[in-house]
Amino acid sequence: FRYYLQWMDMWVLKIATQLQQLEESSCEYSIFIDSDCVLTNSRFDETVDDFLTPFFRSGADLAFFRRLDTHLHTESGFLVLRKSPELLEAYLEMLEFILAGRFYDLASWTDCSVIDHFADTGRINFFDFCAHYDLRSTNPIYESTLRQSMLHLKGPRKGAYSIIKRALGLYR
């Protein structure tokens, strides 16, 4: 990761971390959860298992919350990866795309933008939680059943911070 840190912003480490998981894991599926997510109860395993069943049946390689028809990008705070040669190759291409500076040609320069670009060009066989569950919110994780067991905090820079304040009785 020291090499990657020399060439890119910290957010791109998500792509490198996910690639490393695909390369090194013996598991068929991996879940990536942002570090600003909090598991709020012991039912997470049960909730996530039920939530992911349609993705498992789909045969897709990557599952995420895709916000179509909005100005917002894919929600990359919760991703599910299926270890496949195709996804491994796509992630290698994503990293090369970033290291070559080609992501600066995109409308914005985040991991979400890169994932969207690879989804839009058909490079990734993906499953869209938003389309499957008919989620229309700008915060699709909160709208989904995952909210029962997980919060994606985002901190005070985004509105989700108020959810924690409300839960703790600090919101006025």
Distance between the termini: 42 Å
Structural class: alpha+beta
**Contiguous uncertain segments of 5+ residues:** none
User: Kindly state the mean pLDDT as a whole number?
Assistant: 82
Oligomer: single chain
SS elements, strand count? 6
| Count of alpha and pi helical runs | 8
Q: Output the radius of gyration.
A: 16 Å
**How do the SSEs run, as a string of H and E?**
HHEEHEEHHEHHEH
Topology:
Elements: H1 2-7, H2 13-24, E1 29-33, E2 37-39, H3 44-58, E3 62-65, E4 75-82, H4 85-99, H5 111-120, E5 126-128, H6 129-133, H7 140-143, E6 150-152, H8 161-167
Parallel strand pairs: 3-5
Antiparallel strand pairs: 1-4, 2-6, 3-4
What is this entry, summarized?
The protein has helices at residues 2-7, 13-24, 44-58, 85-99, 111-120, 129-133, 140-143, 161-167, and strands at residues 29-33, 37-39, 62-65, 75-82, 126-128, 150-152. The chain is of the alpha+beta class.
Describe the structure.
The protein has helices at residues 2-7, 13-24, 44-58, 85-99, 111-120, 129-133, 140-143, 161-167; strands at residues 29-33, 37-39, 62-65, 75-82, 126-128, 150-152. With 172 residues, it is an alpha+beta fold. The strands form 2 sheets. A 4-stranded mixed beta sheet has the order 1-4-3-5. The radius of gyration is 16 Å and the shape is globular. The mean pLDDT is 82.
